Amino acid sequence: MALFDRLLGRNQKSFLPSKLWNAIIWGKGWEDYSRWDKRKLIEQAYERNPTFYAACNLIAETVADIPIYVDYKTSTGMGSSTDHPILSLMDRSDDGRKTFVERMMLYLVVTGEAYAQIVFSHSDKRDRRPLGLVTIPAQDINPIQGDYMEPIKGFVFRDTKDIYFDNDEVLYVKQINLREYFHGMSAGVPLAEMIDLNNAAITWNKNIAQAGGMPPIIAKAPGISREESQQLKDDWQMSSGGANNSHRLKVVSENLDLVKLTDKPNEMEWNNALMSTTRMILMGLGVPSELMNDAQNKTYNNQREARKALYMEACIPLARKFYGAMTKKLQPYYSDNPVICIDTDAIGAIQEDRALVVERLTKAVDSGIISRNEAREELGYTVAKEAKTDPMTGQTTEQAVQETALNGAQVEAAVNVLLQVSAGSLSAETAKLILSNFFGIDTAIASEMVNAQTGRTVTPEQLEVQL
Questions:
Q1: Which residues pair with 79 in a beta bridge?
Q2: Could you give the CA distance from residue 47 to residue 393 in angstroms, rounded to a whole number?
Q3: Between the chain's N and C termini, which has fewer beta carbons within 10 Å?
């Protein structure tokens, strides 16, 4: 065990940060809190604080609902699919694709790290293939530092016993951490004091409510004994405490002087603390407070804008990080080099921004700043084969063909555009701009094709006939 002791930093505390070390304390109320202790983040933030809990769940559920597809190489070019074998790994996960993504996102947001075991067909590394994915609780696993050739050489899972995983057996996704390269950092770390204060404000209001709405009171009665003082406290609590006694008349001795520390709880700024810390927690997670019924905050004009901000500022970046890591880890096991992509055109909440992107790219193509292929690539569509230019005529060798026909990959991409119009996820005007400017289809023909799809359901085969 000496080797593992060294690798895990038991003898060299500066070698790797670990949840086993309580090196960093975050103030009273977060006893023994370490930025690497993922269990504390789950207990104190996710399980105890309602704002943090609701925001993390909203992010995870939204990411799980983002539509995805796979681009892959074919013998003739590129293809796209929504049921590629690399995606079926999530379908064969512990609870299905949606639950798997939600759970991975929750661990990533709450603890800054997410882990999944890659289950293989057999143990022989030469020709094995992945069969599915199993989520590993992030609070119980840590990377093992290797050397300059392989910085992470494996992972150790600690619960009732230690289990060691090879590097290629674990999908590891983490948030950027400037302090420690091989660990992720949760938003709960910079928000720790805000969460602690928010929890304290909730506890204060709960105690006030349980006391029948009474703030703390000091009673002064000169000359009474300790026993008489305790009896007076008990009598007062019995006759005045609790909501059921809030309407009853209280009569006290003329020798008893009552001093209230405050008549209103908000004089202690607890209500303001609750609201301000709630907004800070949501801001730290990238969730607009309007989505949490904060009627006083007017950062966004309506729920639609707030929902769009949730996608653009929190969910889409997280989805790209997660699916990017998944692609990098699993792509070597497939001969067609699959790439998991986000279908942003199918997210209705951001389509207004999509139209602005198309308008910007159209101007850039028309002015010659970028090519149609570069515009297609930015929009996430299949890139056409580059045509060669004839130095004598200045025309491309494929120009005549491109003006009258589309190749198979372009037809598939154009069909996808029309299907999005038919489904209502892409506006007709945006689709016309895409078809005419980036696919070279005549403007009148593009308009006729798009108008024909508005308000009706069609199949890809029907659209290919038109193209």
A1: 72
A2: 70
A3: N
pLDDT of residue 368: 82
- Residue 409's pLDDT is 60
Confidence (pLDDT) at 254: 56
Write the secondary structure of the chain as one string of H (helix), E (strand) and C (coil): CHHHHHHCCCCCCCCCCCCCCCCCCCCCCCCCCCCCCHHHHHHHHHCCCHHHHHHHHHHHHHHHHCCEEEEEECCCCEEEECCCHHHHHHHCCCCCHHHHHHHHHHHHHHHCEEEEEEEECCCCCCCCCEEEEEEECHHHEEEEECCCCCCEEEEEEECCCEEEEEHHHEEEEECCCCCCCCCCCCCCCCCHHHHHHHHHHHHHHHHHHHCCCCCCEEEECCCCCHHHHHHHHHHHHHHHCCHHHCCCCCCCCCCCEEEECCCCHHHHCHHHHHHHHHHHHHHHHCCCHHHHCCCCCCCCCCHHHHHHHHHHHHHHHHHHHHHHHHHHHHHHHCCCCCEEEECHHHCHHHHHHHHHHHHHHHHHHHCCCCCHHHHHHHHCCCCCCCCCECCCCCCECCHHHHHHCCCHHHHHHHHHHHHHHHHCCCCHHHHHHHHHHHCCCCHHHHHHHHHHHCCCCCCHHHHHHHC
And the tokens for 40? Answer: 């504390």
Tell which wins on pLDDT, 271 or 329. Answer: 329
Rounded Cα distance, 323 and 344, in Å: 14
Return the pLDDT at 25. Answer: 31
pLDDT digits (tens, 9 = 90+) for 407-419: 556 677 777 777 7
Q: Please write down the long-range contacts of 334-337, taking CB distance under 8 Å and 24 or more positions apart.
A: 334/72, 334/85, 334/86, 336/72, 336/73, 336/74, 337/72, 337/73
Taking only the tens place, the pLDDT of each residue in 205-246 is 777 666 555 555 666 666 666 776 677 677 766 665 544 544
CA distance 313 to 354: 15
Residue 109, sorted as left (phi over 0), alpha (psi -120 to 50) or beta, turns out to be alpha
Domain residue limits, the chain: 34-206+268-342, 217-260, 348-466
**Residue 399, pLDDT score:** 47
Phi-psi bin for 415: left (phi > 0), alpha (psi -120 to 50), beta? alpha
pLDDT at position 92 is 86
pLDDT one-digit tens code per residue, 377-404 = 777 676 665 554 444 444 454 444 444 4
Give the pLDDT confidence score for residue 263 in this predicted structure.
47
pLDDT of residue 452: 76
User: What span, in angstroms and rounded, lies between the C-alpha atoms of 228 and 163?
Assistant: 62
